[in-house]
Automatic annotation (TrEMBL):
Gene: suhB_1
Top-level EC class as recorded in UniProt: hydrolase
Listed name of the protein: Inositol-1-monophosphatase
InterPro entries according to UniProt: IMPase, Inositol_monoPase_Li-sen, Inositol_monophosphatase-like
Lineage, broadest ranks: Bacteria, Pseudomonadati, Campylobacterota, Epsilonproteobacteria, Campylobacterales
Enzyme Commission number(s): 3.1.3.25
Amino acid sequence: MKKRLIKIVKKAGKILKKGYYSDKSVRFKAKKDLVTIYDLAVEKYLKKEFSKYFKEFNIIAEESNNNSVEFGNSIIIDPIDGTTNFVNQVPHCAISIGVYKDKKPYIGVVYNPILEELYFAKKGFGAFLNGKKISVSSEKDLQKSLLATGFPYSSAENKDDLNDVINKIKNILPNCQDIRRLGSASIDLCMVAKGVFEAYYEMNLKAWDVSAGVLILSEAGGKVTNLDGKEHDIFEDKYIVASNGLIHNALLEKIK
């Protein structure tokens, strides 16, 4: 499955890359939530190819109606994670593919065709960037740790979410090295996986944002939980907290 999956994702990456350097027609799903014809084109291509070659899996995709799709043996697609970056030619955007068996992560692929970075992980076999094995940072001190986060689309209209984001930054920023905001959850998780960031947290993400990244990070030696330190549910939990594992408890204390 690996070779076929990567081949399909790389071909879809050509669609993304063409769109990245082209004029774009943008539609707003919400006040801050964008979609382009390239999101739709990448998703259409991936669904067509996955349906052809991986018939044992159903498909859950960001721009599709998933109401009748039961999560189980599923391929979860984010055609362009980081659409705002994509529209504005910020190179942090990626195709994210999470393959799940019996609701458990099996394979994760995150491909950024702009920077030519392909992250891959298979359960029990480690995590890789362009074929080279990666692992999380060995930093144990939160104060020396570089973190990443993201801002939810709901912050434009939901004051509770906005205040929650601001309060958490107030608690965390003085107690870490610094915080970055790249605008792509899948890439943020991969950056923790390869040891660039020590941790990443965000609220109100969807399953397709993190379905691949959580496995890639876990296979790189990291840890992913909810705010209570329990196993993260990609469909249910409001917050994701992901780290190298060594600063996880200290970070959770500051986030709470």
